Amino acid sequence: MKILAMCDVIRLKQVEHVKNEKNILAEIHHPFIVNLKWYTKDNTSLYMLFEYVCGGELFTYLRNAGKFNNSTANFYACEIVMALEYLHSLSIVYRDLKPENLLLDRDGHLKITDFGFAKKLKDRTWTLCGTPEYLAPEILQSKGHNKAVDWWALGVLIYEMLVGYPPFYDDNPLGIYEKILSGKVEWPRQMDAVAKDLVKKLLVLDRTKRIGNMKNGSDDVKRHRWFKHLDWTDVYNRKLKVRSI
């Protein structure tokens, strides 16, 4: 249960922000998203009841493991791809993909949570929001951004799952931003070559050439060699064998 005090929402000038989040959550329902079950409000508070997800954050498992093997990272990535494809089909950009916002359910499957930065788009938006290490270059450049930022963030996440830390890291946020805008990534020798190829195509500075944001959309991502062994219907129906961490 998420309870928001109306006085705090008004004081922090978050009325439109909260209304937007609630409207998006009320519209969506997907196997790999933490679904809103019920909401209401009274004179003092807004109440949102979500399905119970008991497995904790992927962030915790990743930090404890150090990094994931290729098959484990692939398992989680394919479920995220399905969720992003669904959101984008509804013209919703998520904008906050990171391990802390990925929960595991009782069966070990992923659930994306926290839609505070999600937005329904007609074309582009210019709001600067997100986690520094996961920000796409077009957000930093204030050029206006769209669903392509989610595919960039997926590239960052896959890299972090396989390597143990994000591709653009610095103690200072400005240092992180400089590295993102440079587009230079250090590739560990032990990283799977096919996974590396996908991450390279996701971390393309020019969003018009970024996989997932081109003519064929998410189909380009799903057809990539790293996912060639998958039956995407089985992925959606949660039939894949859960990977142990």
From TrEMBL:
<dbReference type="InterPro" id="IPR008271">
    <property type="entry name" value="Ser/Thr_kinase_AS"/>
</dbReference>
<dbReference type="GO" id="GO:0004691">
    <property type="term" value="F:cAMP-dependent protein kinase activity"/>
</dbReference>
<dbReference type="GO" id="GO:0005829">
    <property type="term" value="C:cytosol"/>
</dbReference>
<protein>
    <submittedName>
        <fullName>Uncharacterized protein</fullName>
    </submittedName>
</protein>
<dbReference type="InterPro" id="IPR000719">
    <property type="entry name" value="Prot_kinase_dom"/>
</dbReference>
<keyword id="KW-0418">Kinase</keyword>
<keyword id="KW-0547">Nucleotide-binding</keyword>
<dbReference type="Pfam" id="PF00069">
    <property type="entry name" value="Pkinase"/>
</dbReference>
<dbReference type="GO" id="GO:0005524">
    <property type="term" value="F:ATP binding"/>
</dbReference>
<dbReference type="GO" id="GO:0007476">
    <property type="term" value="P:imaginal disc-derived wing morphogenesis"/>
</dbReference>
<dbReference type="GO" id="GO:0005952">
    <property type="term" value="C:cAMP-dependent protein kinase complex"/>
</dbReference>
<keyword id="KW-0067">ATP-binding</keyword>
<keyword id="KW-0723">Serine/threonine-protein kinase</keyword>
<dbReference type="InterPro" id="IPR011009">
    <property type="entry name" value="Kinase-like_dom_sf"/>
</dbReference>
<keyword id="KW-0808">Transferase</keyword>
